[in-house]
Amino acid sequence: MTTDSTPHAPIASIEQRLDAIQTVLQGQGMQPAEFIETFDELAHEHWVPANGAGLVARAWTDPAFKQLLLSNGMAAIRDAGLTMPPHHRHFVVLENTDDIHNVICCTLCSCTAFTIIGLPPDWYKDLAYRSRVVREARTVLRDMGLDLPAQTQIRVWDTTADTRYMVMPQRPAGTNGLSVDQLAALVSKDALIGVARI
Ligand code: FE
């Protein structure tokens, strides 16, 4: 154990450090304040799980669209008027069935199809989720409130830089009379990640 009697320089507050970084970026000809404003609007107004929920609800009610969504996800989102960034080269939709439950993660960091299912929740980025779900998915899901039957096979999909996933939950029973919009309202971000059922 060592002791250090040298007084530490005071640490600047987060606000002061943020100001310093913004000043440097502005000096490089960038516009950080405008970027943050634009990003914030995109994240909260456009990159929302309602996009994915709409795809799921449409697939539940339109067999031809379901076929397209499952076989060529990129074509399906184009058909629905949605977009993904150019580096998201593949969009793979994983259909839950009575026997198979899908769940997604990014073991490396936080990758998701964020324009379709929204930005990842904080827990999705935690090491605990990323490291555990690939080793003990059933236990992790149970810890998160989803207790799957023992006979249900769980498939865990690890997102990569160019391949993004979305889980297609099963349509709940007793929803025959609902419109596509009403069905979409049932589909949560957690269900699109696969840590919840509907
Ligand atoms: Fe990632």
Please tell me about this protein's structure.
This protein is an alpha/beta fold. The protein folds into two domains: 14-44, no CATH class; 48-193, Nitrile hydratase alpha /Thiocyanate hydrolase gamma (Nitrile Hydratase, Chain A, Alpha-Beta Complex). The chain has eleven helices and four strands, in the order H-H-H-H-H-E-E-H-H-H-H-E-E-H-H. The longest helix is centred in the first third of the chain and has 15 residues, at 32-46. The radius of gyration is 21 Å and the shape is globular. The termini are far apart. The mean pLDDT is 95. The structure holds fe (iii) ion. Fe (iii) ion binds next to loops. Fe (iii) ion (FE) binds next to loops.
How do the strands of the widest beta sheet line up side by side? 1-4
The CATH class designation of the largest domain is Alpha Beta
Strands, total number:
4
Give the helix proportion (percent range): 40-55%
Shape: globular
Q: What Rg is obtained from the alpha carbons, in whole angstroms?
A: 21 Å
Structural class: alpha/beta
> How far apart are the first and last residues' alpha carbons, in Å?
55 Å
**The CATH fourth-level homologous superfamily of the largest domain:** Nitrile hydratase alpha /Thiocyanate hydrolase gamma
Main sheet record = 2 strands, parallel
β-sheet strand percentage: 5-15%
User: CATH topology of the largest domain, anyone?
Assistant: Nitrile Hydratase, Chain A
Which compounds are bound in this model? fe (iii) ion
| Named CATH architecture of the largest domain | Alpha-Beta Complex
